[in-house]
Amino acid sequence: MSIAFYHKLFHSSVLHERAHVPRGRGYCLAATTVKPWPDLTGLAIEPRLLTALAPLMLPTCYRAWLACGCTTVIVALAKSVVVSCESHVWAEPILAGAVGYVLADLGSGVYHWGIDNYGDALTLVFGTQIEAFQGHHKWPWTISRRQGADNLHALACAVVFVVGPIDFICKDPTMLGFVAVCSGCIMFGQQFHSRAHSTKSKLPPLVVAPRDLGLLVSRLQHAVHHWEPYNNNYSIVSGVWNEFLDDRKFGLRPRSWSEPSSKWTGDVEGEDLYQLEA
Length: 278
What we know:
Blueprint: H1 3-18, H2 47-57, H3 60-87, H4 91-117, H5 127-138, H6 148-169, H7 173-187, H8 189-195, H9 205-212, H10 219-223, H11 242-246
Helix pairs in contact: 3-6, 3-7, 4-7, 6-7
Domain Lipid desaturase: 101-250
Membrane topology: Multi-pass membrane protein
Organism: Eucalyptus globulus (Tasmanian blue gum)
């Protein structure tokens, strides 16, 4: 018999068998070898993959906390403006806002210095932040790839609990002006930090203009923080306090006073802040 006959006979037998297969079940005609799942323990995940998937994995609560934080700051600012209009007092709230802006930069520098130099992932309360900041030194470019809610939700949460009660209790326009500007700059400090890792071509004019005026920390100024010996330029709001803080060493011996280790060696990407533009 010919090969065509055997081929026809095989297919007719398959169709005949399928007619008797109970509904809801499937049968495989070919023998297969089932392989076990590979052991993924200790698998190193490429940071670029994590940043690509981050928008899909961002919890809804992150956006909720950011929205609540922004609302809290706006309420404080709005109350300051309204009360100032009613009392015709403008100079004090404006001056208080300027002081809040300056002190926010100081606070960001001191806090950043402490998180960078002391403790580890097991440190109580601050362990997660310490681990994240050390990871940022290893892969500095990733911060500019994350969404704003991812960068800001933790600070927004703190602002809600600290500033929220002040919104309800305080009626002093000067205090409200200070609280609104200071807490807003602190909350958005990480976003200013993120923008310092981005080139002008990737930023909107609304961000480029204040950065060129020195109102926000510049790309060049923050780049020095990621160069050896990794012990300066910690302020991330305007950077106005960097020179003052860099000239003063205090506290227990920090990590940055030692010889830089592999933990502080950045994984440079082609578009990262190491390629600076004017």
